[in-house]
Amino acid sequence: MARSCERDGWGVTVETYLGGIRKLMNPRIMQGSPLRAREAIKTARTTLARLGRGQIVVGGQPDDSLYEKAQGHGQIMDFYLAQVARDAGMKLVTRDAGLLAVFPGLAVYPK
Q1: What's the chain look like in SS3?
Q2: E strand map for the chain
């Protein structure tokens, strides 16, 4: 049974978490003022802690049957997020119309 975000909190994949840290360290994204690794990690952890009841969710081996539904290269990581949510018994909260269409019931629009 899938867990409710309202009842049980939320989750972020390891890939998304690390991607956030990577962006905080990127001089171009940070307009010439990138954070050092320690600061970027602290910022990411503090931000997640403020959201409350969250967790970093670890994914598994890719399920090829999901990726075969992709219509283009840009959907591969999005479909991985759907797989991680499915495997963790969670819902994927997204505004992405493609994910909502391909994974009805698993992908839900935020309230």
Answers
A1: CCCCHHHHCEEEEHHHHHHHHHHHCCCCCCCCCCCCHHHHHHHHHHHHHHHCCEEEECCCCCCHHHHCCCCCHHHHHHHHHHHHHHHCCCCEECCCHHHHHHCECCEECCC
A2: 10-13, 54-57, 92-93, 107-108
Tell me the domains of the chain and their CATH numbers.
Answer: 5-108 (3.40.50.1010)
CB-neighbour burial class of residue 9 (10 A; exposed 0-12, middle 13-18, buried 19+): middle
The Cα–Cα gap between 5 and 54 comes to 9
Q: Whole-angstrom Cα distance, residue 87 to residue 57?
A: 10
> Is the Cβ–Cβ distance between 107 and 82 less than 8 Å?
yes
pLDDT (tens digit, 9 = 90+) per residue, 18-43?
A: 999 999 999 999 999 999 999 999 99
